[in-house]
Amino acid sequence: MKTKRYILPITVVLGFTFLYAPIVSLVIYSFNASKLVTVWGGFSIKWYAHLFEDDQVMHAAWLSLKIAFISSTLALILGTIASLVLVRFGKFRFKSLLSGMISAPLVMPEVITGLSLLLLFVSMELLFGWPAGRGIVTIIIAHTTFCMAFVAVIVQSRLSDMDESIEEAAQDLGASSLWVFFDITLPVIAPALVSGWLLAFTLSLDDLVIASFVSGPGSSTLPMVIFSKVRLGVSPDVNALATLMIGIIAIAIIGASFLMFQKKK
């Protein structure tokens, strides 16, 4: 019996160790003075300075943030509209088809999505002359299409659980549909909107496969630059970049947890 009691804690510890030990080692070796990432050559922060002097990485990071912000915002708007149509418009013709088309990107392999979008953009350029080549615009369109499905699922779940009697009561008291949406519906589903936007932002920032298909010269995102660097061998500046990303994420999680704790108090 005593052995069984310790099996679960030991399994959990081993699991978290397997998950986080490589991340900890990456952070430690980002301060390595040696050019060899597996050989410790003393403490140094020179790779962080080298990272900020790398114009390619800085340009890719700024481009990725800009694309992620625009894509997640567009995905939030379109995904919310799609959710409202599916939840509030009752039964209508082709509802099942619409629901399936919205959910398809969730299970579709990214290679298929990226290839199909590339063929679409090439065909559109031949027929209409737009978009002219592949670049920031095509990446934004692709990421918006991909992320919209995740936003729609999250918002749709929240709308399905929402008590519609509150909205009906407001309409009975003379409120217009637009006023009800902005003053009642929107505040209620706000947590789902924030969650959907953050998820879309993360997915866009992290995407490599789809962006590789629909990007062009001068529009390499940060994951694409990192992947190209790693293919030639992991360098210490890549460790520094990964450490900075881990730090930003950790600060965001700690800040969100603190705000939730304060709200509960």
Overview of the molecule:
The chain has helices spanning 2-29, 46-52, 55-88, 95-107, 110-128, 136-161, 165-172, 177-188, 190-206, 209-214, 222-231, 236-264. The protein is mainly α and 265 residues long. The protein has one domain (51-264): Orthogonal Bundle (MetI-like fold). The two termini are 40 Å apart. The relative contact order is 0.14.
CATH topology title: MetI-like fold
Helix content: over 70%
Terminal Cα separation, in Å?
40 Å
Low-confidence stretches: none
Beta strand count: 0
Number of domains: 1
In CATH's first tier, which class applies? Mainly Alpha
Q: For the CA atoms, what is the radius of gyration?
A: 23 Å
The CATH superfamily turns out to be MetI-like
Mean pLDDT: 85
Q: Tell me, what's the shape?
A: globular
Can you write the helix and strand succession as a string? HHHHHHHHHHHH
Number of helices, where a helix is a run of at least 4 consecutive DSSP H or I residues? 12
Strand content: under 5%
| Class by alpha and beta content | mainly alpha
Quaternary:
single chain
The CATH architecture designation is Orthogonal Bundle
